[in-house]
Amino acid sequence: MQRSIQFWFEFASTYSYLSAMRIEDLAAQHGVSVEWHPFLLGPIFASQGWDNSPFNIYPAKGRYMWRDMERLTAQRGLRFSRPDPFPQNGLKAARLVMTIEAHPQRAAFVRAVYAAEFVDGLNIADDQVLIDCLSQASLPPDTLAHCHDTEIKAALMQQTQTAQAKGIFGAPSFLVGEELFWGDDRLDEAMQLAAEI
Amino acid sequence: MQRSIQFWFEFASTYSYLSAMRIEDLAAQHGVSVEWHPFLLGPIFASQGWDNSPFNIYPAKGRYMWRDMERLTAQRGLRFSRPDPFPQNGLKAARLVMTIEAHPQRAAFVRAVYAAEFVDGLNIADDQVLIDCLSQASLPPDTLAHCHDTEIKAALMQQTQTAQAKGIFGAPSFLVGEELFWGDDRLDEAMQLAAEI
Question: Active-site residues (chains A, B) (predicted)?
Answer without folding.
Answer: 13 (nucleophile)
